[in-house]
Amino acid sequence: MEWANDGKSKGGVLAHLERLEIQVNRSHKNLEDPQRAQAVEHALRTKIHKLRCLRDELRSKVKRRQARVRASIANEEPDQTQEISEQEVAERRQENVKAILQAYRFTGLSGKLTSRGVCVCISTAFEGNLLDSYFIDLVLQKPLWIHHHSIPIFIPLEEISAKYLQTNIQRFLFCLCEYLNAYAGRKYQADRLQSDFAAYLARPLQRNPLCNLLSFTYKVELRGQFLFCARLLYKDLTTTLPTDVTITYPEMDALPPSWEEQRASHENLFFTKPLHQVFTSFARKGEKLDVTRV
Fold it and tell me: Which of 8, 70, 154, 275 is most buried, by the most CB atoms less than 10 A from its CB?
């Protein structure tokens, strides 16, 4: 086809087709001889028709070739395609974890990449005091899973993992931090009570491993010596303040009005302040805690 090698065809079949159509329009204006104009127009329209046929043929060939390529990939290399896809997913997860650790490096989260994925270290703190650290070794595969960890058994790790590990790793780590920091904070308060205020306890402090249930009896002198029994329950395991506080006076069925007022005041303090701060506030208010019977 000689017209295909014409200089006017430079730029591709479609560009040449467009130029021919422009020539048809110009021929009506520039040619005075009607017969000549008709002949030129006929020749141009013939070329346009041939170019359109060639365009349609090329489009069909391209579509057939694309279909063959897709079929070849699907039938001959399914495992390789799946492997590449899973590798890309693993790489994206790894980058996501790195970004999370970078964003939270000042909040107790740190970590390092391993051959399997990433090992995350969660450092706990309370009132500016650095406490225990825990680690969790994550394998960045599909599905994401935990290879090893040092999380205490009473922390609901399985429940947190089922909710967030596969869908939102940032939420998973943040939620785990909440539980661990709250536990560390409750344990810190109980330890401080036993070490710094042991003189005020009539009996040893009782607590469970999660430190969300504390019971203790402390001595108070208010127009005489008497005991208050306190029971603190932390239903919300992500908090360091109790959700339920019960203070009783075991030696009497009914308290005098002034004692009842003091009991209610203590109860409110335990609701709003950390445990060791409550006993500190007793002294600041001038309240006498009996330390003679140690």
Answer: 275
